[in-house]
Design a protein that fits this description.
single chain, mainly alpha
C-alpha cells in the first residue's frame, strides 16, 4: 500500500501545481482578476510543502514526480481545456508513469 499512498500524494501535489500555474494564466491570458494570484500563491506553497512529505531523497522525489505531473497535466488537458488526449499522449503518459514507478519503487540498498 505504500505505492498507492505515494502515487496519491503525487497526484495531490500535481493538482496543487496545476492550479497554482493555471490561475495566473487566467489573469495574464484571459483578463481575469488579479486576485487569482492569491489562491495561486497558496496553491504553489501547498505544492512545495507536499513534495516534502515523501520519506526519500528530494532528488528522487522530484524526478519521479515529473511522471505523475505529466499524467495529471494530460488529464487537465482533457477535463479543463476540453481537448481529448490522443494516442501519443497516452503513450507518453505510459512511459512517464513507468519511469516514475522505476524511480520510486525499484529495490535499492540506499
Amino acid at each position: 500500500m505504500p505505492e498507492l499512498k505515494t502515487i496519491g500524494l503525487f497526484l495531490l501535489t500535481a493538482v496543487a501545481e496545476l492550479v497554482g500555474c493555471y490561475l495566473p494564466y487566467l489573469w495574464l491570458k484571459q483578463g481575469k482578476s488579479v486576485w487569482l494570484l492569491v489562491p495561486a500563491a497558496v496553491s504553489l506553497a501547498l505544492f512545495a510543502w507536499l513534495l516534502t512529505l515523501h520519506p526519500t531523497a528530494a532528488g528522487r522525489v522530484y524526478a519521479a514526480y515529473g511522471g505523475v505531473y505529466i499524467f495529471a497535466a494530460i488529464i487537465w488537458l482533457w477535463l479543463v481545456d476540453g481537448i481529448r488526449p490522443g494516442i501519443w499522449d497516452v503513450v507518453g503518459v505510459t512511459v512517464a508513469m513507468m519511469g516514475m514507478a522505476i524511480i520510486m519503487f525499484a529495490p535499492r540498498t540506499a
